[in-house]
Amino acid sequence: MPTTYAIPDGRVAMAATLYTGTNATQVINNAVNGVSFQPDFTWVKVRSTTYSNTLVNSVMGLGSALFSDTTQAVIATTEYTSYNSNGFTLGASGSTASNVSGASYVAWQWKAGGTAVSNTAGSITSSVSANTTAGFSVVTYTGNDTTGATVGHGLGVAPSMIIVKERSQVRDWSVYHISTGNTGGLRLNGTGANETTRTGWWNNTTPSSTVITLGGSTGNDWYQTNQTGNTYVAYCFAPVAGYSAFGSYTGNGSTDGPFIYTGMRSRYIMVKRTDAIGDWYVFDTSRDPYNATTYGLIPNSSGTDTSYTGWGDILSNGFKIRRTDGAWNASGGTYIYAAFAENPTKFANAR
User: Fold this and answer.
1) Disulfide check for 153: which of 23, 207, 236, 347 has CB 3.0–4.6 Å away?
2) Is a pLDDT exceeding 60 seen at residue 350?
3) Do residues 232 and 295 both lie within one domain?
4) How far apart are CA 78 and CA 73, in angstroms?
């Protein structure tokens, strides 16, 4: 365990903020005990009614939104009016239903690098907002249908998770995760198991410290990440000790489920089964401040917040699964996770 941490307090780079819609201008403040940041990526989900997961970022611009539970191309929105030093401002509810009067929401937010810069590290020039300290970047680029094309991500280390969506067409979301490898991946908007023959996504090439490698028309589903003239957005995440962790675990089918060490107390955890059909699930400590953690939202669904009583415990050094459901703890089942911290273990208190 390191004696010092690049991010000793996760509140400076990631937030899970609860708010209630007003259908009028309101500031969503992400401060926790006085600590806040200006986000570059917001992922908003209404909890109390059925509507899509809405993803907005500073590189595409706040007037453009995508939905993680659909294949829909980018839509125009007027609801997100500014990113602020302590969160973001919403206007009247519109095309993304992010501010419906009386509805309850959670806004997951990440800090990238502010204003995007041109990145020429790859064969395709990209626009990148990168936070190398927090291991997170937002990348936009235009495809060229060239097998082995590369796109700079700006992190300086290899990302462990990449989420790509074609903005200009109706397409699935493509997900690379270090635990599923570079021969395929998962679809964020779907329930399918890991696909191991999608050579058109990443060209069977692991991301480097500078670039993501893409397939071309000689590979399966190349258009998901690299169709000529079409525009894409990529969210790139690299692990940072005590702040973020990406890995896999094996279920045991017991209420005394697996313990997953992350070296931190997590603010946010996303889990997906990879060896069989299963939804994506997100748990956070804003909706569940105390153990046992119960409430889960599904990135590939427009459904409401659901109680999975006794799902697990979010601990000072990791998390432990307590339920036996196949979605996260089938005996012998394989699962991936992504987690972001409240605090490293060294500074974490019991919940």
Assistant:
1) 236
2) no
3) no
4) 17
